[in-house]
Structure formats: C-alpha cells, structure tokens
Write a structure and sequence with these properties.
heterodimer; A: alpha/beta; Rossmann fold; four-stranded antiparallel sheet; 27% strand; disordered C terminus; B: alpha+beta; 2 domains; six-stranded mixed barrel; two-stranded antiparallel ribbon; binds adenosine-5'-diphosphate; binds magnesium ion
C-alpha cells in the first residue's frame, strides 16, 4: 500500500488561558489515506475545530508530528505553510466566508490568484469548478444574491478549484436548513465518489452515518475510530487498542 | 520559494483591485481621511509653485540687471546700518561726481548716470501718470538697461545736443499707442510732463521682478532731463566692471568719490556703492523664508494627514479581520497581505496628493493673476506632491499593514 496522505502522530495543542492549561488536543494519532471520507465527531469543546486548524496548516501543534502529502508540516516557516495551504488544502467553513463584494467567480478564483496563475487560466478553472457544483448560471452573482445552499456551493467550488489533496470542512451544514444541508451532503458524497479526500467535522449523527469512517473525539483525545454508521448509532465505536 | 513574476503581478493586481473596491465602498470616509494630506500638499505645492515662478522670472532678469555693475548713490539700497536721516543729509551725487568717475575710473567698462522721477506721459488722447522716467546716457544699455525691440537707443549725440528723444518701455509703448505696430512707434510724438519728445526706440519686454513692472518706464537723455525736468535731484551712477574686476573697481570708485567729495581721512563714506546682488540676497532670504514656511506647514499637515491615514487603516484592518483570515487560509502570504494594505494606504494618500497638487497649482496660478507674484507649474512640483504623499501613505500605512499581515489566521477567521 502507498503511504498515507495524512499522518497525525500524537498531535497536541495546549492553550494557556488565565494561567490555566487547556488541553484542546491531547495526543491525537491517526492516518488518512487518499480517497477516504472521514467525519470528525464529538461534543462541543471536544477539540474538533482545533484539530481541523492543525490539519489545515492554519495552526501549529504544541507537540506531536503532522505529515501532509509527504511534508513534515512542523518544520515549515510561515510562507511555506501558506503555500502548502494553497496547494494541498481546500477549506469549507460553516459560515461560508465569501467576500461580500466579489462575484461567485471572483471568490472562486482567489486561491489561484495566490498561486500566481495567469488571469485566463484562473477564469477557466473557476468556471469549471462552479459548473461542477451546479452553479453554471450563477457565476456573476454576488453572495447576497445567492441562497445559503448556493453560497456553500460557491465555497466548495473555491475549495476544489486548486485541486488540493484534501477538502477540510468544519460543520459545513451547520448554517443550512436540513433540506439544503442534505443537498450539500449529496455533493460531498459525489465528490467522494469522484475520488476526492474529504475530512469533515459534524455533530449531526445523520451526516456522520453517511461517512465510511468517523473519528470520535472527547476532551482532546480519540475516543473511537471506525465506520460512521456504527459510531453514530452506538455513540461510541471501537476504542483503539 | 516561488517569486515568479506572474504571482507578484497577480498579487499586486489583486491588491490594487481590493484597494479600489474599498475606496469605492467608503468614498466619504476616504475623502475625509485624505483631507489632511490634501491641505498639506496644497500648501506646499502653492508655495513651491510661487517660488519656482519667482526663480524663473528672477533668473531671466539677473543677466539684464547687470551682475557686473556697481551703483554709486547717495542712498544705500538695502541692509544699511546708516539711519535714513543720516543718508538724507548726505550731499547729493551730481555732475561733479559723474565727471570724475568718467575721467578717472580706469577699471570701468561703461559709466551711465541716471536720474529719475515719476512723470506724466501723453500721446493723442492717452495719458499715463506716474511713469518712471529716467535721464541717462547711451551706456545705460550696457549697465543693465535691457535690449532694444524697435528703433534705437539713446546716442552720444542725443546727449551732446540734449535732444528731446525718448526710449519707451514695452508696456508704456503698448498703452500709449494701442493698436500701433511696434515698428511704427519710433517717430511718434509723446509729451513728458508737457515737454514734447520724439520716440526713438522701444525696449524689449522684460516682465516683473519682485513685484516691480520692468516695462513701465521711459528713458531720455540725461542732459535733456536736467534741462526740462529739473536739476535738484541726486543722481545714480551705474558703473560696469570688466569681468572679474568688480572688487577692484569698487575700491577705485571709493577713492575717486572720497576725493571729489572731500571726505576727510578717518570719516565714513558719505555715499554708497550698491550692487544688484543685494537684491539677490534679499531674494534668497525671501524664498528661504517661503521654503521654511512650506516645509513647516507641509510637515505638520502631512503628519496630521498621515496619522489620519494610520487611524483609518487600523479601522479598515479591524473591519476586514475575517477577510484577512480567509485570504491567509487560501494561501496569501504575510507579504501579500502587507502589500494589499500598503497599496491601499498609499493610494488613498496619493489621491489626496493629486487633489492637493491640483488645488495648490490652481491657487498659485490664481495668486499670480491677481498679485505681482509669478507662479510656475513645474513637473518637479507635481512629482513632489504625488511622491511625497504616497510616501506618507506608505510610512503611516506600514504599521496597520504589519498588524494585518501578522494576524493569526485562526483568530482572524473566528473574528465576529
Ligand atoms: N484560541 C483558544 N484559546 C484558548 N482556548 C481555546 C482556543 N481555541 C479553543 N480553545 C479551547 O479548546 C477546546 C477545544 O475547542 P474546539 O477545538 O473549538 O472545540 P470544538 O470545535 O470541538 O467545539 C475548548 O475547551 C476551547 O475552549
Ligand atoms: Mg468547532
């Protein structure tokens, strides 16, 4: 078998708040292989967002090792981290995080601007990404002219446009009604079928149940790692040996 | 790391687009922000334009006015330590002194007396009052009297025969003979304080210097002046030196004058030897003071303007914290964010600078229209206005831009 796309080895992230140590992540280890679809589940405050920030190279661990696509992230300087995010990671946020004054197309082009691609190529690739999420006829709309579901599709197109090795989504359906949320979940399933690697944080059992694999966190530790269906229904899952 | 030009270009282009969009979205705020810069640059540019204008007209005059010429006068022109009363009581300078200088000043290249008054000139039904009328000789052109545009200047014969010949300044000729071609003016008749004269020549236009109109004058033979317009006046003797001989000539003139005016040894001179460069020095002090004011006012207002820009950029950074976090997540480097905000602050400042430059030049040109001051719109002034304000934008924008670039992406994304 090939090397894993992601290796998290005893990842630890501590905060000091008012002189008190907060163990947001306390030695989390797992691998993710190319093409996997993994849900991160757990109660509020269990460390899901902290983990996503580390996986997304937005934050650096207090201890532990993180290897992404063969690169040991811990050794990288700030510029290199920015470049790594640009090439390897597509973010989808709960609150969409679209630029309000820019059109859907301009929003989707943004990662390619920071990659230094020429205008024509940016345009073509952004159009293709918007078509692939079903927004071929909304390219020149601004976020406030789009529904919540459409906004999240724009954000997903923006995450896809740079052809990253993983898509990271933190509560991507958290701000959507259940029907629109379901559309987005179907889009993720479709992306998984097309071979994309997806990691998404959710506290919705329904969504977690759809994922082939789920990692349950509690108090900054891995409580279980197994098939999403089992984990969601059992509320626990296999505890790693 | 990749420093591909396409990437830098793309980032700079994106920075400019963001800056323009932000300016467009906050038009009033941007305008108010830049007001300090506008006022500062307006002041500096107006003063610089006026000083440049003075320089241009002054430089043009300096040659004509005779940098090699000394002026023997009862009066000290500028920077005197004599009292006015003392100078008033000095004996007049007159024909005796003129004769002595003409006879004995071997280092002189040209000697030209002049005696002046304000006279009324009339021709046909045009009458001009208070025109500076000078009695002088043919050498006056050499000692700094300008150049001839039509006809001729006074000649030695005009003086010997005390002819009623007059040479008019360009402005006087224009106003006395409106609509008459320049070449047709010589030969016309003009009355000077009621005495009939014939115009023999017109001087070339010289413009203004330090607020003085150099073209509103008339020259007649020295001898004719004494006969027709009166004798009881002190004269000024202009003496030109050969190049490099100015200092020795001055010593020689002092010797001649002390002897002919019987000044006992040990007593102060009872006359003054003046130079044009006294005006130069005065001019230097004047423009120096103007530049000082420009620098002072400019510095303070640009400081105020710069602080205004810093303040509004800090607000802008706070408002766009989440956007900064997003851009960082999508792969913008710190440098990219820094560049984005620097482009914005220098653009705001340069727009203010552009507006200020336009206003400043406008004010200077207006001032030149309604006052004797001159003004010149030089490329240097424009570059100064734009460049300086953009530099202020860069300088005062760099702290907010640095803050933006060093925001923690995670914190920034969570910002409400
Ligand atoms: N920037 C921070 N400073 C201090 N404590 C933090 C910070 N971010 C998260 N935490 C703490 O770390 C723990 C995990 O937070 P988080 O990863 O956001 O949980 P989740 O996303 O699972 O709700 C919480 O106790 C939270 O209060
Ligand atoms: Mg969270």
């Amino acid at each position: 078998m090939t090397a894993p796309l992601i290796t998290a080895d005893r990842l630890t992230r501590h905060y000091v708040v008012g002189g008190e140590l907060v163990r947001a992540l306390d030695g989390v280890s797992f691998d993710v292989r190319e093409g996997e679809w993994v849900a991160i589940v757990g109660q509020s405050g269990s460390g899901k967002s902290t983990l996503m920030n580390l996986l997304g190279c937005l934050d650096t661990p207090t201890a532990g090792r993180y290897v992404l696509a063969g690169t040991d992230v811990g050794t990288l300087a700030d510029d290199a981290l920015a470049d790594l995010r640009n090439r390897e990671i597509g973010f989808v946020f709960q609150t969409f995080q679209l630029l309000a004054r820019a059109t859907a197309l301009a929003n989707v082009e943004l990662p390619l601007v920071y990659r230094g691609l020429p205008r024509r190529e940016r345009r073509e690739r952004a159009e293709a990404a918007l078509r692939s999420v079903g927004l071929a006829n909304r390219m020149h709309h601004r976020p406030n002219e789009l529904s919540g579901g459409q906004r999240q599709r724009v954000a997903i197109a923006r995450a896809l446009v740079g052809e990253p090795s993983i898509l990271l989504a933190d509560e991507p359906t958290g701000n959507l009604d259940s029907q629109t949320g379901e559309e987005i979940v179907r889009l993720f399933a479709d992306l998984h079928a097309r071979g994309h690697t997806l990691i998404l944080v959710t506290h919705e059992p329904r969504l977690a149940a759809r994922c082939p694999r789920a990692i349950r966190l509690m108090d900054g530790r891995v409580l279980g790692d197994g098939p999403g269906g089992e984990l969601a229904s059992a509320g626990g899952g296999r505890v790693p040996a | 790391m990749s420093l591909r030009p396409a990437r830098l270009l793309g980032e700079a282009g994106e920075g400019l687009r963001i800056a323009l969009a932000s300016l467009a979205a906050h038009r009033l705020r941007s305008f108010l922000t830049t007001l300090g810069i506008v006022i500062g640059v307006t002041t500096v540019i107006a003063i610089v334009a006026i000083v440049d204008g003075l320089d241009a007209s002054f430089a043009a005059q300096i040659g004509n006015l005779g940098a090699h010429t000394l002026y023997v006068d009862k009066w000290q022109w500028l920077g005197t330590n004599e009292s006015w009363w003392e100078m008033r009581n000095r004996p007049d300078v007159g024909a005796r002194e003129l004769a002595a200088v003409e006879r004995e000043a071997t280092l002189a290249r040209a000697v030209s007396p002049s005696v002046g008054m304000r006279a009324t000139l009339s021709a046909g039904d045009v009458t001009l009052t208070r025109i500076r009328t000078t009695g002088t000789n043919e050498a006056n052109l050499l000692t700094g009297g300008g150049t001839i545009a039509a006809g001729r200047y006074l000649t030695a014969t005009d003086l010997e025969l005390a002819r009623s010949s007059a040479v008019l300044g360009a402005e006087v000729a224009d106003r006395l003979f409106p609509g008459v071609a320049l070449d047709a003016v010589p030969g016309r008749r003009v009355a000077i304080d009621g005495h009939p004269f014939t115009v023999v020549g017109v001087l070339a236009r010289r413009g203004r210097m330090l607020g003085m109109d150099l073209d509103s004058n008339a020259a007649i033979p020295f001898t004719t002046f004494l006969r027709d317009l009166g004798k009881r006046r002190s004269i000024v003797i202009a003496v030109s030196a050969a190049p490099g001989e100015l200092e020795r000539l001055e010593d020689q003139l002092v010797g001649i004058l002390r002897r002919v005016r019987h000044v006992p040894p040990g007593r102060k001179d009872d006359f003054s030897i003046n130079r044009q460069d006294q005006f130069l020095r005065l001019y230097g002090q004047l423009t120096g003071a103007l530049y000082g004011v420009a620098i002072g006012v400019g510095f303070i207002t640009l400081l105020v303007g710069g602080i205004g820009i810093m303040n509004i950029m800090l607000v802008s950074v706070t408002e766009r914290t989440r956007e900064i976090g997003l851009r960082r997540a999508l792969g913008a480097r710190r440098r990219t964010i820094l560049l984005q905000f620097l482009v914005e602050s220098s653009l705001v400042a340069a727009l203010g600078g552009g507006l200020g430059t336009a206003l400043g030049l406008g004010a200077a040109l207006l001032l030149a229209q309604v006052t004797p001051l001159a003004a010149a719109a030089t490329g240097g002034a424009v570059a100064l206005g734009l460049g300086f304000s953009a530099a202020v934008g860069l300088l005062f924008g760099s702290w907010p831009a640095w803050r933006a670039a060093h925001l923690d992406p995670v914190e920034a994304l969570r910002h409400e």
